[in-house]
Hints:
- The structure is a single chain.
- This protein has helices at residues 6-41, 45-73, 75-95, 99-114, 117-127, 131-163, 167-170, 172-186, 200-223, 228-250, 264-292, 299-327, 329-348, 356-382, 390-420, 428-456, 463-468.
- It is an all-alpha fold.
- The protein starts with 5 loop residues before the first helix and ends with a helix.
Amino acid sequence: xxxxxxxxxxxxxxxxxxxxxxxxxxxxxxxxxxxxxxxxxxxxxxxxxxxxxxxxxxxxxxxxxxxxxxxxxxxxxxxxxxxxxxxxxxxxxxxxxxxxxxxxxxxxxxxxxxxxxxxxxxxxxxxxxxxxxxxxxxxxxxxxxxxxxxxxxxxxxxxxxxxxxxxxxxxxxxxxxxxxxxxxxxxxxxxxxxxxxxxxxxxxxxxxxxxxxxxxxxxxxxxxxxxxxxxxxxxxxxxxxxxxxxxxxxxxxxxxxxxxxxxxxxxxxxxxxxxxxxxxxxxxxxxxxxxxxxxxxxxxxxxxxxxxxxxxxxxxxxxxxxxxxxxxxxxxxxxxxxxxxxxxxxxxxxxxxxxxxxxxxxxxxxxxxxxxxxxxxxxxxxxxxxxxxxxxxxxxxxxxxxxxxxxxxxxxxxxxxxxxxxxxxxxxxxxxxxxxxxxxxxxxxxxxxxxxxxxxxxxxxxxxxxxxxxxx
Length: 472
């Protein structure tokens, strides 16, 4: 890649940041639009789950493949393709006449988003060769994603009240057009010196693992766990998992590196990422329904309330590195898990008559827990691996997290659906009772995050100590 001066480097950073702002907004904005979408499209609760989960599921399953494709054929090319697909799919979502078509277009939108995150991160890292400048640039880039998450509920709520739920998707169009125009002029092309070979079979097995598994979890409360279609989906998921493990072990450059799972810290980071993002996805889905159905809030007011956890998440993620240097990653990650657990317990005790102050405390605790835990988990998970594999390892941790986001929507939404037993979402008593087990699961996820945090931040013995003590 030709050298770039400061003005051009800042333009590259701006383009990549705009791309992830767009992705971040879309993660949280649609949650606020769910009740309006339910009324217009006559969507069921499983249908709304699919509208949210399909996007994250498609993005998660394709992220690693998109990143390796960018390394091989050109990162700028894949970035612009991702923006184009994401923008076109947003237009299709805005025009969707039915729920099944909306879900299909959300899958396409997630496929476009998969080409933005890992590729944009690689472009930023490649554009800033100086280590200190790169750290600062990556902080700006990650902060942009947090800003997108925080803006999503507020902007989405205002748009839904003013112009309907379809306006949430129209919002992506100007972002996409501007990003494309500036990327054409300002983003240089780059490739990896030694790109990994494509792994289409591994990619297909990932899709056939996660897709049927999500379908089974979402549809089981309605159809029953013994329904033929649910059992068939579970069988396909199990067979795909077994096939993926066997196939990837034999490849020289697998899509998912099995050797990483021999590292206890990496395994702990995968498990912690699963717990954090699973609770994150389920929390935002259930919170949007809770605020607008039992509590009868407008979309814009619900969006302002959802800004509380989203804003706390964005601010705490920016401060995580500085706090870790002062306090240490181990107590900070344990504290993040504790904040999630306390938030889950307090939310489980909520009633329709609970004070607004208590609701705000719960939401702040949840946002702080997720915001502190996410960067610390990734950093700790890759710390024991070779430096040249850190990118692939962090990508795998992020991919598992994104998959868990979709599965969190599926699992916690299924718990709510089963508990309602046909009662409408607007029935405050039925909703509060039905959703309580889901909040206890959120609390359990916080406890798991704290315990796993102790594992991934455990001190490793020095080489000298390991030589003295064979048990090390």
